[in-house]
Design goal:
Elements (H helix, E strand, L loop, with lengths): L2 E6 L4 H10 L5 E7 L8 H4 L14 H7 L2 E4 L6 H10 L3 E4 L9 H8 L6 H6 L1 E2 L2 H8 L4 E3 L3 H15 L8 E7 L14 H4 L4 E2 L8 H12 L5 E7 L6 E8 L6 H11 L6 E3 L17 E8 L4 E8 L3 H16 L15
């Protein structure tokens, strides 16, 4: 038996990444895909790489819901709640790659996204789903909030230190760099080739919408409200996120102690790799994979912990993690359809 999966917003970068990954999933098949902009066209006309591999015609949202057991929503914020409501009425699983269900506090959602919650009961039923941190809460849920790409790289890199209480929680600085695909498929001046090629600069400095999501997760594991300084940058590459986190240690530690804490925290996790002491995480070694590579460093002179976290923003930061969550909800092998490595060269 194969579960039927549908993708709403299949022609965006995260949506087509879902297509790429689901085509090789041993327990799921794509039942239907939709797109507002390209309805009636074959997806292989939009993405020629899929020609003769997957030539399905793009339908409307309702067709996807009707034909599928699991529906992935790959849409801008503000568009997922109505879809979640339809899925709830049809007893379907909804996995939202957008931001509509990520924040628990409606006031923060209003402040950062300029929207209110439409259906409060749905938010009570939803779960923020970062498998390595709250796997048990994800099981048996039908509304899944897939984490953002930057928050995934930060949470995986920092929660072991926060939960063990070894760092000062109010002095955390997060410096993240993302490939241009993180800006989405809709053209913008920032992502325009002449603007981003041979360039490197921060954007939305201290105002990025992923900030409250990062603080929400860290606060949960710190048992206090955590505020961070978060500065994202745009890298002139297609995909990948490299996050470098700086945090003051409460007491003197050696890197071997920190390394042991992280190895123990993630000892049973299939997709988190703690790099050997002396090595540094690199986006090159996680491309096209669902892995998160974490390297640990200490500046003994300043007493500061430095964590470097690398993920593929399209896979572990979006589509791959969504499929990982689907696997958990359906009770199938968590690694199913995700056992691929990065290209070696």
């Amino acid at each position: 038996m194969k579960y039927k999966a549908g993708i709403i917003g299949a022609t965006g970068y995260a949506g087509v990444e879902l297509v790429r990954l689901l085509l090789r999933h041993p327990h799921a098949e794509i039942a239907a895909i939709s797109s507002v902009s390209y309805k009636g066209q074959k997806i292989s006309e939009v993405y020629p790489a899929l020609a003769m591999i997957y030539d399905a015609v793009l339908e409307d949202e309702q067709a996807v819901i009707d034909k599928s057991d699991v529906i992935f929503g790959s849409l801008p914020h503000g568009l997922s709640e109505n879809i979640a409501l339809q899925c709830e009425k049809s007893s379907k699983i909804f996995i939202d790659l957008g931001a509509d269900f990520r924040l628990q506090n409606e006031e923060e959602y209003l402040y950062w996204y300029e929207n209110n919650f439409q259906f409060h009961d749905l938010h009570k039923k939803a779960v923020y789903a970062l498998p390595e941190l709250n796997r048990e809460e994800i099981k048996n849920k039908t509304i899944i909030a897939n984490p953002g790409c930057y928050p995934t790289s930060v949470a995986l890199g920092l929660v072991p230190a926060v939960s063990k209480g070894i760092i000062e929680n109010q002095s955390i600085i997060i410096d993240s760099k993302s490939g241009v695909s993180g800006a989405g498929r809709t053209p913008t001046q920032t992502a325009h080739f002449p603007e981003c090629n041979e360039a490197f600069a921060p954007y939305k400095t201290a105002t990025h919408r992923h900030t409250p999501e990062i603080e929400q997760t860290l606060s949960r594991y710190a048992d206090e409200k955590v505020y961070v300084t978060f500065v994202p940058h745009l890298l002139p590459i297609n995909r990948g996120i490299l996050t470098t986190i700086y945090a003051n240690l409460k007491t003197e530690k050696h890197v071997e102690e920190i390394h042991a804490i992280y190895e123990n925290f993630y000892k049973n996790e299939a997709f988190v790799r703690i790099m050997p002491i002396g090595q540094t995480s690199n986006v090159k070694y996680v491309r096209y994979s669902n892995y998160c590579n974490i390297s640990l460093h200490i500046d003994q002179r300043t007493g500061r912990l430095i964590v470097v976290s690398a993920i593929d923003n399209m896979v572990k930061g979006a589509a791959g993690q969504a499929i990982q969550n689907m696997n958990i909800v359906l009770g199938i092998a968590e690694k199913a359809g995700l056992e691929m490595s990065a290209p070696c060269v």
